[in-house]
Amino acid sequence: MSNATAGASRTQFWALYLTRFAEGFGFITLITLLGTYINALDPQATTVLGVTVSAGFVIGMYTTGFTLAQTVAVVPLAWAGDRFDKRTVLLGVLAVGTGVYALFPLVDSSGSFILVRALQGLVVTGTGLMTLSLVGQIADVGARADKIGKANAASFAASIVGSLSAGAMYDAVGFGPIFAVIAALMVAAWAVTWLFLDDDDTRVEGFPFSDLAVNRRILTMTTFRAQYAFAVTMVRTWVPIYVSTEMAAGGLGVTGIAIGVTVTAEKATNMVGQLFTGRLSDAYGRSLFVFAGGGAYGVIAMAIPFSAAIGSALGAGVTLPILGDLPPAYLPLVAFSGLLGVADSFREPASMALFADEGTDDGGVASSFGIRELVWRPGSVAGPLIAGWLMVEVSMGSVFYVGGAFAITGVLAFLAILTHDHGRAALTAW
After folding, report:
1. How large is the average pLDDT for residues 357-380?
2. Contact 371/355 with Cβ under 8 angstroms?
3. What three-state secondary structure class fits 319?
């Protein structure tokens, strides 16, 4: 590769990394403020077409509306990316995203919040599919997980900045200015993509989903990913809900900036980890990293309900500058959140690289990532509904027990199939 070609490739990667940053900033802002929206909008039980809908179900829809829209968007967006120019599709999605984030300050009810979050789901799905597909397509095979890990690290960097700034800005000025910043970032991402990303000349005829859906390696990954989706969606969403909801509802009721610190702990460790773990999984076997990361995530999630007991034993109830009065459970919860990020940093780039490998080899890298997204959808749609019901009807801790159990059963099913297919060398076979 000539120096000019290498430089062009680096410029394209950086353009995609910056776009991932913008996507991650918008996504994490809503995750960080989800508990705050629950407090502000005060979801109540309601009756729809003669059916009583509980407050827990409405809370679950704050996330499920987002994931349902993602589910609908995956197939047409992935097909369009493979059939036409991924760059053009990405530019269109970023333009729509600018308008969507400008709508959030107008939200004044649970119904309008769920609707705008659904539109956000379309934007996040399209941006994620196109950026990851292009990174996987441009990268060399032996460096694919490494490049994907760096793209994810850019998203997590946005998550750190977004979660901290969202909490602090909300405490100072409310919702409006936060979304003005996100809309401006989407405009900047559009400009960077238009200026520096080359046209995508690959074209895939037909409907590549049909061939990739029966790909043996993709089917093996599906056994894990379908269950793991419940775990991550429940745990990742409910950590900030746990820390931000009122104590009467089982939460910790801390300030906005303290919420941001909790979310940031997971994002920071995940970001730093993925700068290295992608390269390691390229070298030592991607299935091993999927198994180890997924299993560790489940164990850590199931330990979260013990935060209060650990904090009380350590005398962790303190008052800190900026963060204010903190209950005993807070600091142990921040530590567990950081450990969740470490665990997921092992799994994520390895998993993505496996799907990129299959899509690139068989034709249709966007469709391969689309299948990866579709497999995630049942868990991401049903998981918050289960978690909302558990939070209201059982306890806050039960959300993390059930979420962690899904991760454990997922890695055990994955290991069983790998062992059947590859014997004792299963975890180093891929």
Report:
1. 78
2. yes
3. strand
